[in-house]
Every structure is written in structure tokens, then in C-alpha cells.
Amino acid sequence: MKTIKKNLLATALLSATMATAASAETITVATVNNGDMIRMQGLMADFNAKHPGIDVEWVTLEESVLREKVTTDIATKGGQYDVMTIGTYEVPIWGNNGWLVPLEFDVSYDVDDLLPAIRGGLTVNDNLYAAPFYGESSMVMFREDLMAKAGLEMPKAPSWNFIMKAAKEMTDKDEGIYGACIRGKAHWGENLAFITATANSFGARWFDENWNPQFDSAEWSDTLNFYLNLLNRYGPPGASSNGFNENLALFQQGKCGMWIDATVAASFVTNPKDSTVADKVGFALAPDNGLGKRGNWLWAWSLAIPAGTEKADAAKSFVQWATSKEYLELVASKEGWANVPPGTRTSLYANPEYQKVPFAQMTLDSINAADPQNPTVDPVPYVGVQFVAIPEFQAIGTAVAQEFSAALAGDKTAEEALAAAQALTERAMDKAGY
Length: 434
Known about the structure:
- This protein is of the alpha/beta class.
- The chain has two domains: 192 residues, D-Maltodextrin-Binding Protein, domain 2 (3-Layer(aba) Sandwich), CATH 3.40.190.10; 219 residues, Periplasmic binding protein-like II (D-Maltodextrin-Binding Protein, domain 2), CATH 3.40.190.10.
- 45% of the residues lie in helices and 13% in strands.
- The protein is built from 19 helices and eleven strands.
- The strands form three sheets. A five-stranded mixed sheet has the order 2-1-3-11-6. A four-stranded mixed sheet has the order 8-9-7-10, sandwiched between helices. Strands 4-5 form a two-stranded antiparallel ribbon.
- A hairpin with a 2-residue loop joins strand 4 and strand 5.
- Helix 18 runs antiparallel to helix 19.
């Protein structure tokens, strides 16, 4: 009799397990191909244990491809994705359009713990429309040993003139070492992010207060010529093809004296598992030109739920897990505090363990140095630091990025690239009715 009862119990448990498996909801998450997102995929056992009724399928794409695909899908209501990794540019525009599900989480999530600068960029009419997976600004990452060899000392807040001088002194082309590794790949989120943030510090603007394009200004000429001179003289070969991932690999291989890029890269260049120069890296604020604006950006890669999904509850469970305090602790327990996704929570920067991380304070200082409401030296009618928060910017920005990348490749002069940028931006803005 006991045997029969045991068999019946086992059968019931098996049936329940099969029923749960059969009823499991599958959500598709579109994400960017970078280290933090790949790490998350390796930690899914924790999510699966807490949410056995939800299966997750991943679509992992390069940054520019991801932006194109999710933008097309949400604008056409394609329904391919239940969770999208999107940025600070998209959230206010898509939230206003009603394309995203407003996010409300359990009290345990502690939404008030989100850094105000990051949360503000993801909020529309007091509704949070995306949850930040990590937040970032940009800063200088440099080889301390090469800086010392050059007889220089990196200031905490360097000028662009110092960067040019240091790049010259640190370059040793015979040894395959280049003073400056900078984004050159053509896309509004690649080379143009760096160039626009730099332009802010040179006193340039995308538009004046009446939405007139400003690429014919002396400030833009100074910006682009500085950028081209820096990379043509002291950058690696083929710089016009290098984006974030390519420059990360170069830096980790010891090929770069300085890399000015996203603060989130700090954990990768200091990780001895991946970086040959992990113990030789220093950090400084993004440079300025003495005009009151630093050349750093502000960004968050965030998880959002498209309004067209039929699996909003399951999607919300995943978003809450991936952006929670508990997830940060999970990463710390597996990978160490230096590899926790940065730039999202006040409590992280108050954590004594995280304060020991060498780049933690510089990351926070860099984020706080960016002001998307007042990004430029002179007044402008737009918000956004390395982008202009209008729907037309994606297309205009990528077209301008292609002109600047062509100049870097030697196919155009700076003046020709700026003239083309001015003309195409004028046409696009006229067509849009500005």
C-alpha cells in the first residue's frame, strides 16, 4: 500500500512538473553585445530558480544593429521582443508615444534608490518607463606606466591640450602602442557620441536657439580638426572602423596609452582575466577646454517593455530581477564588486565594499558632471548630452557620423565633412518642420 501511495505521489509530482513546464511562458529579450549583458546571461540560473514559470530567449546584437531592430519593431508594432534594451535617448520619446509599458515594481525594489540623474532620464510625466541596468558617463582610462615613462602626470581633470600632448609622448608605433584610442566607427551611438560630447566642451552646438544647424561654426571646425589630428597622428590604424568593442580589445591588449570612452569599461580593463594591463590603469575625468563644460556624456542601458507585448507580467518580473539590488549582490558574489553593473543606485556608491573599487568614485563624479538639461556652453533648445532628444536625431546623427568617419578615413577633408553635415541637417530639419 505504501509503495502504491509513493508511486501515486511520484506520478502526481511528475505531472505537476510537466504541467508547469508546459505552461511556462517564454519571453524574448533583445540586448546589446557587451560584457555586462553577457555576464547576465551567465547568471540566469538565479532567475530560473526564482521564476520557474518563465523561460527567457536572448537576441544579442551589436549596438548599432540593436538600435535599428528594436526601433523598427516598436514603431511597426512587430512584437518580436518582450523586453528591449534601450538607451536614454529612446525612453522619453517612446514613452511619450505610448510605446512602452509604465513600470511599477514591488516596494522591495526601492525605486527611490535609483540615482536621480539616471532615473530622471527614464521618467516621463512622473512614470518610470525603463529600469536602468547600468548607467555611465565617459572618462579617460590611461596606462599609468606609459604616462610615467613619458614624464607626465595625469591630472584628475585634464584639458584637451594635455590629452594631445600626452598622446604624442605615449605613442610608440614601432612597439604598436598608440597614444589615443577613440571611437571612429560611423553611427550616432559610436563616433558621434564621442564627437558631440567633445564639441560641447569646445563651445559647439548642434542647433542654435531657433533650431538652425551650427556645423558651419568655428567651434565645430575646431572640434572636428582636433579629433582628426588626435587620431591621425596618435591613433591606431583603421580607427574609422573602431567602436567600443574594438577599442576595448586594443586597450586590453596593451595597445593604447589612453582610451576615452564609457565609464562602464573600467571593470573590463582592470579585470586580470581579460586585460594584460589590468594593474596599470588609471582614471581621470573627461577633458575640457576651459569653457565650463567637460567632454563627457550621460547614458543608461535600460530594460523596457514594449506596449504591444502579451507577456507584460512575465517581462516585468525579468526586468525587476535584472535591475534589482539583489542582482548587484549576485554579481558581486560571483565576480567581485568591481564587476557589478555601475551607475544606477545610490546605495551601491554608499557601500563600503564598492567604495574600495578604484574607479567607483570617478564613475560617480563623471555621471554627476553631465547635465543633459544644459549640455552646451551657449543655450540650446534641446536636451541630451551626446545626442539631441528629438525623433529625427537617429537618422540625422548617423548620416553626420558617416561624414565624420569618412573624414577620419581620409576620404574627405574636415571642411567637406562639416559642409555636408550642415546641408543634410538643414534639409532634414526643414522637412520635419522645425
